[in-house]
Amino acid sequence: MDMDIWLCLIGALAGVYVFVFGILRNLNQWRFVTRHGRRYNLPPGDMGWPLIGTLLPFLKAFRSGRPDSFIHHFTSKYGKTGMYKTHLFGSPSVIVTVPEVCRHVLMNDEQFVFGYSKATRILTGSKALNSVPKPEHRRLRRLIASLISGNEALSLYIGHVEGIVVTCLEEWGSMKEPVEFLSEMKTVAFKVLLHIFIGANSAAFIDKMEKLYNDFHLGFMSTAVDIPGTTFSRALKARNELIRIFEKVLEEKRENLKNKVGENRKKDMADLLLEVRDEDGEGLDDGCIIDLLIGFFFAGHETSAHTIMRAIMFLSENPETLLKAKAEQEKIVNARPADAQHKGLTMKEIKQMEYLSKVMDETLRKTSLAFTLSRETKVDVNLNGYTIPKGWKILVWTRAVHMNPEIYENPHQFDPSRWDNPKRRAGSFIPFGAGMRLCPGIDLSKLEIAIFLHYFIHGGFRLERVNPNCPENHLPLPTPTDNCLARVVRDS
């Protein structure tokens, strides 16, 4: 009798095993691949479990402090094909790690569109750059190009950035207690963006806007279900409040323009967006301007703060690199005429910061803030010999490209000299994307980073971390768990 019970138990367990691993484990494979027969020649890979796909191994890799192990699983199991099918973030997807294929996907607007989540599309707005159709996208890019990347506009913003940076560094340098350097940098980045975009410098207003943006930002990682109390609901509420604030700002600016109030003051980006006209004399409506401003804040806030923090961390850990950067900054300052009236930086001087530019590029490569860039196929696409169905996501895995030892020797080493030879494989450096959908704020972001690093390095500041070996979180962005708790020390 006992033997019968054991046999029944073993049989039941075997049945469960067959059901779980023979049916459930292959359900995604059947649903998205097998049932199409030979219609699609998909790359090798793992479709994972129903609904969650390969999300669990993804989270395990990123939360364990070894984010690259997720891709290493695919390469070790399926070979170095550079393309792998999977089911991730709720969609059937193909991960791409071959530089040339990555570039092709990012440059091809005929076959691919942004693959952002529903929450992201709602929160960024219907008139944002990532939402509008291709013709309107091109028109907007033409209109705003000179406002965020032209030398004339960038020159206007230098003074805005300098004043905030110098004040903050002096304040931190006088403090005896350590600060959460990343948190402080986020505040600095926010002050800079508010000052540049809408001319705001009130402490109370900046604090209010920063709190709204924190709620807004969290919503991008949420499920788009508007139920009171949820992360998405709070983000949507924050967006609506931001719209009301920007509507009031634009209304006041139009009134001032009509009455010629403050004609001699420095213009901010909102002023320029109100004035800009296309070849037909058409300007931008308020809804478009507001969605653009919201998008600029979202894209520029976190990126600048994290990049500056990482650059300073890397420089602190590499004394020889810091000395080279410091020598360049001193040379630029010492080259100013003795009777120069302008004591601050100029665009000409910033363009002379060749070594600092390499430091920034190496920081962006090594950090890979956006570990992937998402696109979606508009039609069935032939990609590198594989056929990808319409509606699938293409995950351009930037981190895998930037940390590939076949492209970058000793990729985990911080080495700005690797940029002495700028000739690299197409698509091997894509921190901001590529093509028409390239992040439009690159030059403005790099301007802000260069100015901060200049005053930090030339001013003789040092970062003394309290917990230099503290672990890192890798989601949503690579971040020290203590937010880089450190003392900002100024050498006498």
From TrEMBL:
Q: A Gene Ontology MF term for this entry?
A: ent-kaurenoic acid monooxygenase activity
A Pfam family recorded for this sequence: p450
Annotated heme binding sites:
C439
Location of the protein in the cell: Membrane
Q: In what way does this protein cross or attach to the membrane?
A: Single-pass membrane protein
Q: Where are the transmembrane segments?
A: 5-24
Q: Which domain of life is it from?
A: Eukaryota
Q: Which GO terms describe its cellular component?
A: endoplasmic reticulum; membrane
Sorted alphabetically, which keywords does the UniProt record give? Heme, Iron, Membrane, Metal-binding, Monooxygenase, Oxidoreductase, Transmembrane, Transmembrane helix
Could you say which cofactors this protein requires? Answer: heme
Which biological process annotations from GO are given for this protein? brassinosteroid biosynthetic process; brassinosteroid homeostasis; sterol metabolic process
Stated family: Belongs to the cytochrome P450 family.
Q: What is the name of the protein in this document?
A: Beta-amyrin 11-oxidase-like
Q: What organism, scientifically named, is this protein from?
A: Cucurbita maxima (Pumpkin)
